[in-house]
Amino acid sequence: MTTTPHRLAPYASLPDRYDGQQVAASTVDAHGRVVTLLVPPDAMCNRRVPPAQRPPYDALIVVADGSGTQEVRLPGLDLHFPRIDSLGSGFVLVSARCRLPSGPPAATFEDLEREIPHNALVVSDDGTPLTTFHAGDDVQHLLTDRHGNIWTGYGDEAVLCAQLPADRLRVPGPASTPRPVPRMTMPLPGLVRWTGDGSPAWYATLDRIGPGSWTDCYALNVGADLTWAYPYTGFPLVEVDAAGIRWTRRSPVRSASAVLVDGDSAAFLTSDTGPGKAPGHYTVTLTRGRNGPLEAVASAPLRLPDGTRPTGWARRKICRDGRAWLQFDDHRTWYRLEL
Questions:
Q1: What is the DSSP letter of 311?
Q2: Are 138 and 155 in contact (CB under 8 A)?
Q3: Could you tell me which of 3, 11, 4 has the C-alpha nearest to residue 337?
Q4: 137, exposed or middle or buried, with CB in 10 Å at 0-12, 13-18, 19+?
C-alpha cells in the first residue's frame, strides 16, 4: 500500500526585515495569506510563567499575500499563548490558556460575566479593538472561514464557561424573546463555532448527530463551505456545515495531527511510531469512502522539497479543504501539502 513520498512545496517565508522579532503566532487564512503576529524578542507571551511575570507587550500583525505585506500595530496586548487569524478585513486573536474563576460562585449573572476572562479579541484592519469574548481554556485551533465564522478547537484540558446560542434562549411562543441565563461549565467542549462578534453559534457537544466523545480535537480542517474535525477518543472524521454535523465516518487512522479532505478522499498526517521513531518522520495515509467508513488505499512518507525528512516535528499545521500548510523549526517558513 506504500506509494512514492509526498513532497512538501515551499509556500512562503517572512521577509528578512522582521528577523529581529519573535513569531508569537502564525497562520494561513481562508484566502491563502500568511498572517503572523510578531512581538519583541523578550516578550513572555509564549512562556509558562505566572501572570505577574507576563507584562503586556506591543505586537505587530504582518499579512503577506505574495505581492506585498500589510502591517497592523497592536500596542499593549495581553494574550497568553496567542492564536491569530484574519476575520473579514480585520483579525481575531485568542489566548490559548486562561484562568477561570475560582472560589464562591457569583451571586448574579452580571457578576459572573465580569469574572469570566475574555481571552478573545476582535480588531479592525487598523488594529482598533471591536469586541472581546470568552473563548475558554486550552484552545488548540483557531480558524476562520470566508463566511465570517470563528472556529475554536480544544485540547484535553479544556473548559468553557458556555452560554447557549441565541436560538436556545428563546421562550416558545409568538412573542418569544431572548432571555439571559446563567452560563454552564462545559468541560471538554471539543469544537465551537462563533459568529464574527464572538457570540456562540454552535457547540459540538450539544449536537445529537456527533460522535459523543470530544475529549480532544486532534485535527481541524476549515474549508470554503464545510468543516471537518477529527476528535479523540474514537478518531472519526466529522463533517460540519452551517446547520451542524452532517455525518460522522469511521476512520482507519488513529492519532493523526492533520487531515486533508477533497470530495470522497481524505488524507491523514501521522507521526511515525515504533523503535525507529525520529522527530519529523511523518506518514500520509490516503483514504476513500463515499457513504460508509473510510478505507485506507495508500500511504507514503512525508518529505521536504529536497527529498529529505524534516528534522523536527511540525510546530504549526493549518488545514483547509485539500491543502495543509506546515511549519517546522523555522517559524518564518511555511510549506504546503496538497491532497
A1: S
A2: yes
A3: 11
A4: buried
Its pTM surpasses 0.70: yes
In the numeric block, the cell 511555511 is attached to 334
Burial code (b: 16+ CB inside 10 Å, e: under 16) for 120-136 equals bbbbeeebeeeeebbbb
Domain CATH code at residue 112: 2.120.10.30
Closest to 230 in 3D by CA, of 190, 194, 192:
190
Q: Which three cell numbers stand for residue 127?
A: 488594529
Q: Is residue 212, in this structure, part of any structural domain at all?
A: yes
pLDDT (tens digit per residue) in 249-299: 999 999 999 999 999 999 999 999 877 789 999 999 999 998 889 999 999
Distance, in Å, from the CA atom of 202 to the CA atom of 229, rounded to the nearest integer, reads: 14
Name 153's Cβ contacts closer than 8 Å, sequence gap at least 6.
Answer: 139, 140, 141, 143, 190, 191, 217, 220, 229
Number of domains in the chain: 1
- Residue 330 inside a domain? The answer is yes
Closest listed residue to residue 149, CA positions, set 278, 20, 241, 212: 241
Q: Is 151 a member of any domain? A: yes
Question: What are the cell numbers at 38?
Answer: 510578531
pLDDT tens readout for residues 214-223: 999 999 999 9
Q: Which run of H or of E encompasses 111?
A: helix 109-115
What domain range includes position 186? 6-338
Q: Are 151 and 136 in contact (CB under 8 A)?
A: no
Nearest C-alpha neighbor of 99 from the set 73, 124, 77, 81: 81
Rounded distance between C-alpha atoms, residue 19 and residue 181, angstroms: 48
- CA-only gyration radius of the chain, Å: 20
Q: Is residue 1 part of a domain?
A: no
**Is residue 151 classed as helix, strand or coil in its secondary structure?**
strand
